[in-house]
Amino acid sequence: DAGITQSPRHKVTETGTPVTLRCHQTENHRYMYWYRQDPGHGLRLIHYSYGVKDTDKGEVSDGYSVSRSKTEDFLLTLESATSSQTSVYFCAISSDRGSSYEQYFGPGTRLTVT
Amino acid sequence: QKEVEQDPGPLSVPEGAIVSLNCTYSNSAFQYFMWYRQYSRKGPELLMYTYSSGNKEDGRFTAQVDKSSKYISLFIRDSQPSDSATYLCAMTINQAGTALIFGKGTTLSVSS
Hints:
The complex is a heterodimer. By secondary structure, chain A is mainly beta.
């Protein structure tokens, strides 16, 4: 998985609780992304980062926040989890050297909100 | 209308068959086109990418882009049971790649 780890890999949480998912990369790539994948919707971009402390919103950013204090780590926080945020979350990375459209994905985090 | 349309299948073929997977899109500004393969409960892995129109071949896989028809295809020759996976097309306008738009994926099953 291109030097990308995600933690936790599985999580069950209750509605209203905060949740933080972590993405860690060892590739020193500039760009990092958070997606969610749901049946019938495919992969949708939540937030992305183009450098340390530089982030921007994606298609489905409501209810999510992100932070990137180091090149290698990108955190996704659900401030107050809802059942609609039950999903599989994927982190991806891409380089700014040449073809940065080539995104490489982590193994995913399966989140269930009860 | 979604920007990228992909038939979800499922598509079932016997081993050795030629498989054709397709996506259509509506935004003529898309320039870079990718195919990802995703095995069950795994992250997507980049299979092939092409820039603009034309064909690109890599072993048993051929990616084809027809920008005039806004249509991309992935052909798999001599399909194997190990090709059983979900195939996602993706595309973007610029090389920065920050706005990658994915199709919903087509599930392929190759039986031995």
